[in-house]
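Technical note accompanying the year-one report. For the benefit of new consortium partners, we illustrate the data format agreed upon in the data management plan: each record pairs a sequence with a structure-token string. No post-processing was applied to the example shown here.
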Amino acid sequence: MAGKAQSFGKVVKLGVKYGPVAYEAIKHGKEPAREFAQRQLSRLNARKQALAHAEGLTDGSAMAVFEGDQQVWVVFNADEPVASHPTVDTPLRQLIQGYDLTKRLRPTIDQRPNAGPLNAIRRKR
């Protein structure tokens, strides 16, 4: 019992000593973490939107390019740039200048069977 009391006392002393510092670090660290998560989510959404847009075209494809430090997905119909996700003010021809157009991604139609209730029953066994 004495060991528990001593360790609890140490925890309390450290909490009193470093608690305010930890609180300030957490308080100031939330906003950069939130901004980072928001940027990652918008990048993922832009990719999904571009591939969905390309899927609706006759010979659609998409490619990631960079405008400054921002990743932009350019959608192509055959070899002609059609749109960008997210939308930017820079002309599309200027965005793709210098990039290898053979590295474009083509949207794939998922041919796998839908994971329905039957698969869920099989996994439980």
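Partners are asked to follow this layout when depositing records. The two ends are 47 Å apart (CA to CA).
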